[in-house]
Amino acid sequence: MRRLYICTLAVAGLGLSYALHAAPGKKSAFDKTAFEAYIRQVELLPDGLTVSVGDPKPSPFPGWKEVPVELTAPNGLVPLRYFVSTDGQLIVKGAIFDVNKRPFQPELDKLTTDQQPSFGAAGAPVTIVVFSDFECPNCREEAKVLRDNVQKTFPQEVRVYFKDFPLEKMHPWAKPAAMAGRCVFRENPAAFWDYFDWIYEHQAEILADNLKTNVLGWAQTKNLDALKLAQCIDSKATEKEVDREVAEGRSLQVSGTPTIFINGRPITGAVPWNAMEQIIRREIGYQQAAAKSDEKCCEVTIPSLAPKPQ
């Protein structure tokens, strides 16, 4: 039998597992207008905030559909996730866990790592995916934490993947920097991490109008083809790649940077190394325990056919 845990969140002191009650002649189908009005009241959303309610879509859990919601905030879009019962009468905000699967499996299913900048051991039991913004000060601090500690402490156990999530409304040169980074990665994947380290180190010196000049100057010190890189930057050849990563982040409810997924577990904001190390070690322990459990589960004992001694 499938067992589900429903994890709900609280906002303004109100639990967000609730019934959507209508008038006596209530409709049985999902009603977007009623849904929006109800969550505005529960979440205390201001009238001037734009709320976009998507169409219900299938979820992995019988009896429930997932409804994507986006809030248009001053710093960009904020995605929210709700689950609605098939009769449209019950709403849950939060995460639903199926104990027969790995924790955060839905997040793992959405995360793509093919053709992404990465470092660390291939096939490592712990995967860290970082959605980041090159103009974000907290991202700069988290970048240093990852680069200084992961490979030194976990040389065989962790692989780190980088994803662009520029906050365009807040940071004017974040998206151009992300596109330039993808151009570097196209030309020489190994050079991307030099670019990554360099741009965070010089973050305070970069402006929207000097970004390209600085990037090309850096490229010449790394034996990259500066002309080829300039053509890639000018043509915006990698813009669709960055846009795909942003769309993926939104599908995972990413709304700020840095957002880190450790084996699918989402963590928002800069994480100090001592806290991240503990999470990684617990994840390694969980993986080892799960592997032992699987081995024990599948052991087959064959009875001996030798005659018993008289």
How would you describe this structure to a colleague?
The protein is an alpha+beta fold. Helices cover 38% and strands 23% of the residues. It folds into two domains: 4-101; 107-283, 3-Layer(aba) Sandwich (Glutaredoxin), CATH 3.40.30. The protein has helices at residues 32-43, 105-110, 137-153, 174-187, 192-201, 211-221, 226-234, 239-251, 273-297; strands spanning 4-8, 10-11, 14-15, 17-19, 50-53, 57-58, 64-73, 76-85, 90-98, 118-120, 126-132, 158-164, 259-262, 265-268. Strands 1, 4, 5, 6, 7, 8 and 9 form a seven-stranded antiparallel sheet that branches. The model is unreliable at 1-25 (pLDDT under 50).
SSE map:
Layout: E1 4-8, E2 10-11, E3 14-15, E4 17-19, H1 32-43, E5 50-53, E6 57-58, E7 64-73, E8 76-85, E9 90-98, H2 105-110, E10 118-120, E11 126-132, H3 137-153, E12 158-164, H4 174-187, H5 192-201, H6 211-221, H7 226-234, H8 239-251, E13 259-262, E14 265-268, H9 273-297
Parallel strand pairs: 11-12
Antiparallel strand pairs: 1-9, 2-3, 4-9, 5-7, 6-7, 7-8, 8-9, 10-12, 11-13, 13-14
